[in-house]
Amino acid sequence: MTHSPTVGPTRVPSGLPSGRSTGARLRAYLRLAKAGMIDYYLSLVVVWSLLPGQPLSGPVSATLAALLLGQMCLVAAAVAFDDVTGYRDGSDATNYGPDAPARKLARKPLLAGTLHESDAVRFARGALVAGALCWATAVFTAPSRPAWAVLGLVAAAVVIPQYSWGLRLSYRGFQEVFLAAVGWAFVLPSYGLLTGRITGLAVVEAFLFGLGPLLFGVYSNTHDIAGDRAVRRPTAACVLSSRGNTVFVGALCLLETAVIVAAAPLGVAPWWFPLVLLPVTVTRAVQFTVGMVRGDVLRARLTGIRAHRILVVALVTANLLGAGTA
């Protein structure tokens, strides 16, 4: 995801084919929305597993469904706005150029010429409105409405589209915090609406969940240094030296491991919690070795996505085991 007009946009040679089928157009919009990237949406599986008895009926089901649709719409709006910005400033053309064979150009429908810029802007605005309506429905159907959870949801709805549009938060040095904060915002307010409370375990799992997207995003940023520097986007990879960036990524990995290990002695999680999450720690070590030691950052990014999904499975397993032994 990239921004700020200093590099000119790369236009497709002849615009969109006039005879596109409805199916082709739908596929282009799904790519614009990054529909295949489900990682943030897994937050609600974690939230459900934290619920006492893991109910799936009545208000709980309706609230979960509305929360999920809202998440999908708001993320779709954010990434569509981001694609428009990256297209306008030319940074996506740099980052998805011939030197990035591991990335498919079809993932960027503006660059590929399957959508017009105006199509993407309209789509993003419509998704933003739809997401706000879905989350308003979630508040209405929720079993509980603690003020902190409602305000958290409102804040997330306002901030998420500002990644590279409006306030352009990633241009202000908040890119890494943003990636993690979206995950935190998808877990804690949702848990509050469904339970009316907050627990230490919910905070720990929200924190770990948010680190997941950050820990594959930093590898993307490492690959995208040239494009991001060209548009003056101050990611950690751009601002720090190569060694400093390696230390930064390593520190994030160690932070994740420290939280996993400390949860049990602090009384937040059962003693066996770190054992259930051991596959996450092992996969994270492999990811760091591949990306920061061997220099294959795009492969490490894919390993990070896998690690995040392993984390979700591990958290859900721990929660279900905890409920069974409570």
TrEMBL record:
Organism of this sequence: Streptomyces sporangiiformans
A GO term, aspect molecular function: prenyltransferase activity
GO BP term (any one): vitamin K biosynthetic process
Membrane topology type: Multi-pass membrane protein
UniProt entry keywords in alphabetical sequence: Membrane, Transferase, Transmembrane, Transmembrane helix
Highest rank taxon of the organism: Bacteria
UniProt keyword Transmembrane helix present: yes
Keyword Transmembrane helix: yes
Principal subcellular localization: membrane
Stretches that traverse the bilayer: 28-51, 63-81, 123-141, 147-165, 177-194, 200-219, 247-266, 272-293
Locations listed in the record: Membrane
Coiled-coil intervals: none
Pfam families, sorted: UbiA (PF01040)
GO cellular component: membrane
InterPro entries documented for this protein: UbiA_prenyltransferase (IPR000537), UBIAD1 (IPR026046)
Protein name: 1,4-dihydroxy-2-naphthoate prenyltransferase
